[in-house]
From TrEMBL, chain A:
<dbReference type="InterPro" id="IPR047699">
    <property type="entry name" value="Permease_put_prefix"/>
</dbReference>
<keyword id="KW-0812">Transmembrane</keyword>
<feature type="transmembrane region" description="Helical">
    <location>
        <begin position="409"/>
        <end position="434"/>
    </location>
</feature>
<feature type="domain" description="MacB-like periplasmic core">
    <location>
        <begin position="507"/>
        <end position="667"/>
    </location>
</feature>
<feature type="transmembrane region" description="Helical">
    <location>
        <begin position="748"/>
        <end position="772"/>
    </location>
</feature>
<keyword id="KW-0472">Membrane</keyword>
<dbReference type="GO" id="GO:0005886">
    <property type="term" value="C:plasma membrane"/>
</dbReference>
<dbReference type="Pfam" id="PF02687">
    <property type="entry name" value="FtsX"/>
</dbReference>
<dbReference type="GO" id="GO:0022857">
    <property type="term" value="F:transmembrane transporter activity"/>
</dbReference>
UniProtKB/TrEMBL annotation, chain B:
<dbReference type="Pfam" id="PF03551">
    <property type="entry name" value="PadR"/>
</dbReference>
<feature type="domain" description="Transcription regulator PadR N-terminal">
    <location>
        <begin position="20"/>
        <end position="90"/>
    </location>
</feature>
<protein>
    <submittedName>
        <fullName>Transcriptional regulator PadR-like family protein</fullName>
    </submittedName>
</protein>
<dbReference type="InterPro" id="IPR036388">
    <property type="entry name" value="WH-like_DNA-bd_sf"/>
</dbReference>
<dbReference type="InterPro" id="IPR005149">
    <property type="entry name" value="Tscrpt_reg_PadR_N"/>
</dbReference>
<dbReference type="InterPro" id="IPR036390">
    <property type="entry name" value="WH_DNA-bd_sf"/>
</dbReference>
Length: 871, 112
C-alpha cells in the first residue's frame, strides 16, 4: 500500500498560526498518531482534522511573534507614546482637538449639504436619458402640443410627458375640507418618463381618464389609514375623482415633490395653439442620442409649428424675416438634463431650488475653516516641538531613522485628527437643527452617516492628518540628537513661516467678518428702502375669484368693520410675480412694448398708497374707465413720451386703451432688479379676462389687534364662501420673504465667521503660551532692569498686531474684490464704504489684544526672581 | 479555617491522575491512550492538550521538553509531571470523595 504523508497545508497552517512554543509538541503528537494510524489516507484526513481542532486562541501567534513586522510593534509604541503625550499636555491637546473638531464639523455638515445638492433627481431609473424641454434657451413653459408632437415626429424620442404643477388643490373627503399642496397634473405617459415605484395600481392605466387620481403612499396612509386607498373617492377642486394607484413618495432630493397626480386637461389642443405656453414638457430620448442632436431637430419643429403662428401675430411675411429682425432671440426648444435641474436650472424646479452659488460658497467656507484649523495644528505642533526635542534626541541616539520619527509624529497627528473627528460628529449631530434652518433643507441624523459621508470622513482623516502633521514631523525629525540631548533649545521651523500662517488665519477671519457685515448691511438696506408704496397693515386675501359676484357685498361688509379702512381687488399683488403682456402704440407704427400688466380696482390707489404724479387713477362709477390704463414712470420713460396723458396703447388685434394717469415708480418686485414698466388696467367690468382681475382682495387695516381683525375677516369670508378655507397674509411679510435667501446667506457667513474667529483665537491663545514659555527669562530680565507691566504687554502685543495688520490687508482686498462683484447683482445696493472694511480689522485686533494680554499678564506681573533663580 | 479547595473539572481530574500514574512519562498522545485504555473513553488530542495547558497554568503539573523520536517526525515530546501542588490536589480530591462516600447510608448502596 502506498505510504501517505501528512497533508502539507496542515503543516503550513500550523507553522503560520501557532506559537513556536506549542508548535513542536502539537506537531509531534499529530505525527505520532499519524504513524500509528498506518499513514493511510484516513490517517491523513485525521491529521488535517486535528490540525483544525487545535485552532485555539491560546496557540495563536501574537504581535510579538512576528519579528519581521517590527513596524507593527513600533506603531503600537508610537500610539502609546502619543496617548501619553496627549494626557500629559491636556490643555494643548484640548485646544488642538477642539479647534480641529469645529473645523471638521463644519466640513462634515457642509459636505453632506453639497452631496445632497448634487444628488437631486438621480434616483429615477434611466434618468440620465430624461430631459426637461425648455422654450428657447431657458423658458420654463412650453406649448401644450409639444410633448405629443415630439413623440410623433421623432423616433429618437422614447417618451414624453406634459405636466402642470405643482398647485394647491382643494380636497374634500367625506365631510372634511382642506387645501392639499403638491398637486401635479400630467398626461398618461408620465410614468414612462419618470419610472416611479408603484405600491398598488398599474402605471399603464393609472391616469387614463379625467377622474383618475394617483396618490403618494404618505397621502394614502393619511387619508385612508389601515385600508387600501384604491377605488376611494375624493372631491378635488369640486370634481369627483377616484384613486387608481398609489406610488412611493418621491425622496427629498427631487425637483418634483408631488403629493398626488391627476390627469392633465386637454382644452387648447383643438385650436392647434403653439403660442400659449402653459405646460412643462419632459422627454426621454433613446440611448446614444445626444441632447445637442435633438436640439438641432427641435429648431425645425419650432419653425414648422410655432413659426407660422408667430408671424401671424407679429405681422412678418416669413419666419426668416422675424428671425432676422430679432437675431438675439433663440427660436427653438432645448433639452436640459433632469439631473442638472436642481443646480444648473433651478428655475425649472417645482420644489426646493438649488443655488450653485451657495454650494460654491459653502464649499469654500468649509475649506477655509478646515485650513484655519490645520494651520492651528501646524503652528502649535511646531511651537510645541521644543518640548519633545529630548525624546527625539533619545530615539535618534538609540538608532531611530529619520523616517521612523516622521511616522511617529504623523501617527500622533492622525490620532489627534481621529479624536477630533469623533468630537466633530457629536458637534454635527447637535447642530443639525440649526444647520437645517440655515440651508432650508431637512437633513436627519442618519443622513450624516451615509456611505459617501463616511468615506469622505476617512479621506479627510488622512489628508488632514498628513497635511497638518507633515510639516511639524519634518521639522522635528530634523533635530540633531547631540544638541537636543544637551538641552539646547532648537529653533523649531522658520519663524517666518509660522507668522505667515497666523497672518493667513487672520486674513480669512477678517474676510469672513467683512463679508458678513456687508451682506447684512445690504439686506437691511433693501428692507428699509422706501418702496414708493405703503405695504404696512395691508392684508392680502388669496383666492378672491371664489367670491365671484359677491365681491361687492364682501367689500362693503369689510369696510363696515371698524378696523378696516378700505378694500380693493387686483390681478397681481406686489412681490408675488408679474406677467408681461404685449402692447403696441397705434400712432407710432405699432411699436411693440412688453410691460408688466395688472388689473386693479379704483381703491388700489388708497390701499397701496400709490402716488399719482400726472392725471388720475381709476374712479368708481365711470364706465368709460374700462378703456383706460394707468402707467408708471418707467414705462413713460421707455416710450419717450413728453405728455403721456391721452396717448393710446393697443393690445395686438384687440382693444385700444387711453392713458389717464402716471404713477410714481414703486417697487413691486425685488430690489435686485430695476423697476420695470407697469400698466394697470381697470379690472371690474372687463369680461375678457373673466375673474382673473379678482385673484386677490386687498384690505388696508388699522388695528393693534391683528388676530381679532383676521378673525372678523375670516368670519365674513366663511359666510360668503362656505367650504372654502380662508387664506390670507400680510403684504410686508411677502416683501420680507423675497430676501430670505440673502438673509440665509448672511446667516451662513455669520455662523462660519464666528467659528473661524473662535478657531483662530484658540490657536492664538496656544501660540501666546508658547511664546511666553520661550521668553519668560527675557521678560524677567527686562522687569529687573525696570520694565513696567504695560510696557511688557505692549511688547508682547506688538508682534501679533503686525500680523493682524498684514492679514487684514490681504483679507480686506479679497473681501473688497468679492463683495463688489456680489453687490453688482443688486440694482439697489449700498456703497462699499471704508469703515465697513476697516471695522473687521479693528474687531479682530481688539480680540487679539485681549487674548494676548490676558495670557501675558500673569507672566508680566510674576516675580522675576522665580524665573531667574534656576539656571 | 477552611482548607484550600481545589477546583478541578472532571476531565482535569482524570488527566491529572493519569499524569501521576505515568510518572514523568506523560505527554499528549500517551495521556490520550491511557485514558482510553484505563477508562475506555475516547478523547480528542486537542482536548488533552488544552487540559494539560490548563493544569500547568494552575501549577498542578510542570513540563519540560524530552527527546525526539523518528515516529514523531523528529519532533520532541513535551513531558509532564505532577508538582507538589498537584499531588495535594489529587489527595484532596480523593479525600473529599471518600468522605462523601462514607457518609452515604449503606442501605442505599445496596449491601444491606
Amino acid at each position: 500500500m502506498k505510504k501517505h504523508t501528512p497533508p502539507k497545508w496542515a503543516l503550513k497552517f500550523l507553522q503560520f498560526f501557532y506559537k513556536e512554543k506549542y508548535l513542536e509538541q502539537i506537531e509531534g503528537d499529530l505525527y505520532e498518531l499519524f504513524e500509528r494510524d498506518g499513514a493511510t489516507r484516513k490517517a491523513r484526513r485525521r491529521f488535517g482534522w486535528n490540525t483544525v481542532r487545535f485552532f485555539r486562541l491560546r496557540y495563536l501567534k501574537g504581535l510579538e511573534d512576528f519579528e519581521q513586522l517590527t513596524t507593527l510593534a513600533m506603531i503600537k509604541n508610537y500610539l502609546k507614546v502619543a496617548i501619553r503625550t496627549l494626557i500629559r499636555q491636556k490643555s494643548y491637546a484640548g485646544i488642538n482637538i477642539a479647534g480641529l473638531a469645529i473645523g471638521l464639523a463644519s466640513c462634515l455638515l457642509i459636505m453632506m449639504y453639497v452631496f445632497h445638492e448634487q444628488s437631486y433627481d438621480t434616483f429615477y431609473p434611466e434618468g440620465e436619458r430624461v430631459y426637461r424641454v425648455a422654450n428657447g434657451e431657458r423658458g420654463r413653459y412650453t406649448p401644450e402640443l409639444l410633448a405629443k408632437t415630439m413623440m410623433e415626429e421623432y423616433p429618437q424620442v422614447e417618451a414624453t410627458t406634459r405636466i402642470s404643477g405643482l398647485w394647491e388643490s382643494h380636497f374634500q373627503i367625506g365631510n372634511q375640507s382642506f387645501f392639499q399642496g403638491g398637486s401635479a397634473w400630467a398626461d398618461e405617459n408620465i410614468f414612462k418618463v419618470f419610472q416611479m415605484e408603484f405600491v398598488s395600481g398599474n402605471p399603464e392605466s393609472a391616469i387614463n381618464g379625467p377622474e383618475d387620481l394617483v396618490l403618494t403612499e404618505s397621502l394614502a396612509k393619511k387619508f385612508f389609514p389601515g385600508e387600501s386607498a384604491i377605488g376611494k373617492t375624493i372631491v378635488v377642486d369640486g370634481n369627483n375623482m377616484k384613486v387608481t394607484a398609489v406610488v412611493k413618495d418621491p425622496p427629498k432630493n427631487t425637483h418634483f415633490p408631488f403629493k398626488f397626480i391627476g390627469r392633465v386637461w386637454d382644452n387648447v389642443s383643438a385650436n392647434q395653439n403653439w403660442t400659449g405656453n402653459n405646460f412643462w414638457t419632459y422627454a426621454k430620448i433613446q440611448p446614444g442620442i445626444t441632447s445637442q442632436e435633438m436640439n438641432n431637430k427641435l429648431v425645425s419643429l419650432y419653425e414648422k409649428y410655432v413659426g407660422p403662428q408667430l408671424i401671424a401675430y407679429s405681422g412678418h411675411a416669413t419666419f426668416e424675416d422675424l428671425v432676422e429682425e430679432y437675431p438675439d432671440r433663440i427660436y427653438g426648444f432645448t433639452l436640459h438634463p433632469l439631473r442638472e435641474i436642481h443646480l444648473e436650472n433651478p428655475h425649472f424646479s417645482m420644489g426646493a431650488r438649488g443655488d450653485k452659488k451657495n454650494v460654491v460658497v459653502f464649499s469654500m467656507v468649509a475649506l477655509f475653516i478646515l485650513l484655519i484649523a490645520c494651520v492651528n495644528y501646524i503652528n502649535m505642533a511646531t511651537a510645541r516641538s521644543a518640548v519633545r526635542s529630548k525624546e527625539v534626541g533619545i530615539r535618534k541616539a538609540l538608532g531611530s531613522y529619520r523616517k521612523n520619527i516622521i511616522s511617529q509624529f504623523l501617527i500622533e497627528s492622525i490620532l489627534i485628527t481621529f479624536l477630533a473627528i469623533i468630537l466633530a460628529v457629536i458637534i454635527s449631530v447637535f447642530s443639525l437643527p440649526y444647520f437645517n434652518q440655515l440651508t432650508g433643507r431637512a437633513f436627519e441624523i442618519s443622513d450624516l452617516f451615509s456611505l459617501t459621508n463616511i468615506i469622505s470622513i476617512l479621506v479627510i482623516l488622512f489628508i488632514v492628518g498628513l497635511l497638518a502633521g507633515g510639516y511639524p514631523a519634518y521639522i522635528i525629525s530634523n533635530f540633531t540628537p547631540l544638541k537636543a540631548l544637551r538641552g539646547q533649545m532648537q529653533q523649531a521651523g522658520k519663524k517666518g513661516l509660522r507668522s505667515g500662517l497666523v497672518a493667513f488665519q487672520f486674513a480669512i477671519s477678517i474676510f469672513l467678518v467683512a463679508a458678513t457685515s456687508v451682506i447684512f448691511k445690504q439686506v437691511m438696506f433693501m428692507q428699509s428702502q422706501d418702496l414708493g408704496i405703503n405695504t404696512e397693515q395691508t392684508l392680502v386675501i388669496n383666492n378672491g375669484r371664489q367670491l365671484g359676484e359677491k365681491y361687492d357685498v364682501f367689500k362693503n361688509e369689510l369696510e363696515g368693520l371698524a378696523d378696516i379702512e378700505v378694500v380693493s381687488k387686483s390681478s397681481h399683488i406686489p412681490f408675488h410675480g408679474s406677467s408681461d403682456w404685449t402692447y403696441q402704440v397705434p400712432n407710432e407704427d405699432n411699436r411693440r412694448i412688453a410691460p408688466n400688466n395688472g388689473f386693479a380696482s379704483p381703491d388700489m390707489e388708497k390701499v397701496l398708497g400709490l402716488e399719482i404724479v400726472n392725471g388720475r387713477f381709476f374712479e368708481h362709477n365711470r364706465v368709460s374707465d374700462s378703456a383706460t390704463v394707468v402707467i408708471n414712470e418707467s414705462l413713460v420713460e421707455e416710450l419717450g413720451w413728453e405728455d403721456p396723458l391721452g396717448k393710446e396703447l393697443q393690445r395686438p388685434g384687440g382693444h385700444t386703451y387711453q392713458v389717464i394717469g402716471v404713477m410714481k415708480d414703486f417697487n413691486y418686485a425685488s430690489l435686485k432688479s430695476e423697476i420695470d414698466p407697469l400698466i394697470y388696467r381697470y379690472g371690474p367690468i372687463n369680461s375678457e379676462v373673466g375673474m382673473f382681475h379678482q385673484a386677490y382682495v386687498l384690505a388696508k387695516v388699522n388695528t393693534s389687534d391683528i388676530l381679532n381683525t383676521l378673525n372678523q375677516v375670516e368670519k365674513k369670508w366663511n359666510e360668503h364662501v362656505p367650504g372654502y378655507p380662508f387664506d390670507g397674509h400680510f403684504l410686508d411679510d411677502s416683501y420680507q420673504k423675497q430676501y430670505e435667501s440673502e438673509l440665509k446667506f448672511g446667516q451662513v457667513f455669520t455662523t462660519f465667521s464666528f467659528l473661524a474667529i473662535i478657531i483662530a483665537l484658540l490657536g492664538l491663545f496656544a501660540l501666546t503660551t508658547f511664546v511666553l514659555q520661550k521668553r519668560f527669562k527675557e521678560i524677567a530680565v527686562r522687569k529687573v532692569l525696570g520694565a513696567t507691566v504695560p510696557s511688557l504687554l505692549r511688547m508682547m502685543i506688538k508682534d501679533f498686531t503686525r500680523l493682524v495688520i498684514i492679514g487684514g490687508a490681504i483679507g480686506i482686498s479679497g473681501a473688497f474684490y468679492w463683495l463688489s462683484s456680489w453687490l453688482e447683482g443688486y440694482s439697489y445696493r449700498i456703497e462699499l464704504s471704508w469703515y465697513l472694511l476697516i471695522v473687521p480689522i479693528i474687531l479682530i485686533l481688539l480680540l487679539t489684544w485681549a487674548v494676548v494680554s490676558a495670557k501675558s499678564y500673569r507672566a508680566a506681573v510674576a516675580n522675576p526672581a522665580n524665573a531667574l533663580k534656576e539656571e | 479555617m477552611k482548607i484550600k479547595s481545589y477546583q478541578l473539572g472532571e476531565l482535569e481530574e482524570l488527566v491529572l491522575m493519569i499524569v501521576a500514574i505515568l510518572n514523568e512519562e506523560a505527554y499528549g498522545v500517551k495521556v490520550m491512550d491511557e485514558i482510553q485504555n484505563q477508562i475506555g473513553r475516547k478523547v480528542n488530542i486537542s482536548a488533552v492538550h488544552t487540559v494539560l495547558d490548563r493544569l500547568e497554568k494552575k501549577d498542578f503539573v510542570s513540563s519540560y521538553m524530552g527527546g525526539a523520536s523518528a515516529e514523531r517526525g523528529g519532533r520532541r515530546k513535551r513531558l509532564f509531571k505532577v508538582t507538589a501542588e498537584g499531588s495535594k490536589a489529587i489527595t484532596y480530591v480523593h479525600q473529599t470523595r471518600n468522605e462523601l462516600y462514607n457518609q452515604i447510608p449503606k442501605t442505599i448502596l445496596g449491601y444491606g
